[in-house]
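Hey,
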Amino acid sequence: MYTSMIFIMIIISVIMIVISISLLKRKNWECFYIEDEILYIPSLFVVKIPLSNIRNIEFRTFRSRGSYSGKIIVNLKNAKVIKRYFQTSQVAFFVSEQMVLTEIEKITPLLKKYYIPYSINK
């Protein structure tokens, strides 16, 4: 009986260590950013998308559990779709809609620079 509980605790500990290492090795805590013509979307593991493969990007904001969240939907040229949820790169107990829109506004000048079409749906 105790061996099964110990085994479960070991599995949970390994999962927590993997998650902690993946979060600690992040060099940038932004919700998403562009470096060297690659769009980085950090989630548990960072998704790297070359800008040349992006057809368009869609941002959505919505209310969930008393605060606001955002969703980035990246449509690629090979018909794949990548979706990730985000809130804000700031530490906050309550996230307002303006905070989510500020995160989106940080990346829109770079999208304009690389001529990537995007839309923001509220």
